[in-house]
C-alpha cells in the first residue's frame, strides 16, 4: 500500500510539473513554437504515466479516464498522438512544417518520458517496480494475439477514436472531453487484453517495440499501420474525401446552398397550350362576378 501511494504521488507530481512547464513555455516561447512543439512535448511526458506506474487494471483504467479528462481540459489542444497530427494535415488544418514539428516534439517527449520512467523504476518504490526494473531490457510484448487480429483491433480502436474526435470537434468542451475520455477508457478495457489498446504510434513504439516476441515489421504493422488506416477511414467516412489530397466527394453528394427554380419544358410542335386562367375567354351568356348586365339600346 505504501508503494502504491508513492506511485500515485509520483504520477500526480509529474503531472503538476508538466503543467508548470507548459505554462512557462506558453509565456516564454512564441505562439507558433509553443503550438507546434512545446505543448506536444509536455503532454508526452505524462502520457506514459498510467503505463509506467505499475498499477493494477482497475486503477489503471481509472487513471486513464482522469488523464484524458484533465488533459482535454488543460492542454490547449495538444494530442500527444501522431495519428491526430496527421489527421489535421489530411484535413488541411495544419501545414506540413507544423506537422513535422509536432511529430518531432512527440517523439522527443516520449523519449524523455521513457528516461524518466526508467529512473522512476530504478528507485524501486514497490515490489512491482523491482520486477519492472529487472525486466526492463527483457520485457514481454504487449501484443498477445496474432498480427492480423492485432492490426484489426488497433485499426478499429483508432477508427472509433478519430470518428469521435471529428464528431465532437465543434462541440463544447463540457461534452467533447467526457465523451473522448469515456470512449478511450471503454476501448482500453475491451481491447487491452489483445494489444493493450494503444492506438497511438508514438506510445506503442516507446512501450513495446523493444520487447521480444515479435519483429519490428510486425510491431509496425499492428501499431502504426493499423491506427493510421483507421484514422484515414474515419476521415473518409465523416467527410467523404481527404481535403489535403483531393476534393471530390466519394460518398456524399454535394448539395447547393441555393435552390435553383426548375424551368418549364418548352412545348413541342404537337402540344396544345392551354390559356392562362386570367386570360381565359368567358363562355357566352356568362358574366363575371359583380358585373352588371348591359342595357339594350
UniProtKB/TrEMBL annotation:
Keywords: Membrane, Repeat, Signal, Transmembrane, Transmembrane helix, Transport. Its main location: membrane. Residues 259-297 are annotated as: Disordered. One of its GO terms (molecular function) is channel activity. The chain crosses the membrane at residues 59-78, 177-199, 219-238. SUPFAM superfamilies: Aquaporin-like. It is found in: Cell membrane. Residues 1-20 form the signal peptide. InterPro entries: AQP11/12_channel, Aquaporin-like, Aquaporin_11/12, Aquaporin_12, MIP. It holds the Pfam family MIP. The keyword Mitochondrion does not apply. It is a multi-pass membrane protein. PANTHER family: AQUAPORIN, AQUAPORIN-12A-RELATED. Belongs to the MIP/aquaporin (TC 1.A.8) family. AQP11/AQP12 subfamily. This is Aquaporin. It comes from Equus caballus. The gene is AQP12.
Amino acid at each position: 500500500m505504501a508503494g502504491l501511494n508513492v506511485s500515485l504521488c509520483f504520477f500526480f507530481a509529474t503531472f503538476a510539473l508538466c503543467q508548470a512547464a507548459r505554462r512557462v513555455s506558453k509565456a516564454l516561447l512564441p505562439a507558433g513554437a509553443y503550438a507546434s512543439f512545446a505543448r506536444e512535448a509536455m503532454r508526452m511526458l505524462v502520457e506514459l504515466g498510467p503505463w509506467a506506474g505499475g498499477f493494477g487494471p482497475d486503477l489503471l483504467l481509472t487513471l486513464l479516464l482522469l488523464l484524458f479528462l484533465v488533459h482535454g481540459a488543460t492542454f490547449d489542444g495538444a494530442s500527444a498522438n501522431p495519428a491526430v497530427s496527421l489527421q489535421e494535415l489530411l484535413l488541411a488544418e495544419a501545414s506540413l512544417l507544423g506537422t513535422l514539428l509536432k511529430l518531432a516534439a512527440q517523439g522527443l517527449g516520449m523519449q524523455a518520458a521513457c528516461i524518466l520512467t526508467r529512473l522512476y523504476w530504478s528507485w524501486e518504490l514497490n515490489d512491482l517496480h523491482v520486477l519492472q526494473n529487472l525486466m526492463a531490457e527483457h520485457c514481454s510484448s504487449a501484443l498477445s494475439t496474432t498480427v492480423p487480429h492485432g492490426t484489426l483491433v488497433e485499426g478499429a480502436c483508432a477508427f472509433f477514436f478519430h470518428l469521435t474526435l471529428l464528431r465532437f470537434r465543434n462541440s463544447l468542451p463540457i461534452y467533447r472531453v467526457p465523451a473522448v475520455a469515456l470512449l478511450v477508457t471503454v476501448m482500453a478495457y475491451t481491447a487491452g487484453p489483445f494489444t493493450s489498446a494503444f492506438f497511438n504510434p508514438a506510445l506503442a513504439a516507446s512501450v513495446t517495440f523493444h520487447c521480444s516476441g515479435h519483429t519490428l515489421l510486425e510491431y509496425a504493422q499492428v501499431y502504426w499501420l493499423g491506427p493510421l488506416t483507421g484514422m484515414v477511414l474515419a476521415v473518409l467516412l465523416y467527410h467523404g474525401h481527404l481535403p489535403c489530397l483531393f476534393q471530390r466527394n466519394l460518398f456524399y453528394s454535394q448539395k447547393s446552398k441555393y435552390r435553383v427554380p426548375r424551368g418549364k419544358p418548352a412545348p413541342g410542335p404537337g402540344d396544345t397550350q392551354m390559356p392562362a386562367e386570367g386570360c381565359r375567354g368567358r363562355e357566352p351568356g356568362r358574366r363575371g362576378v359583380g358585373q352588371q348586365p348591359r342595357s339594350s339600346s
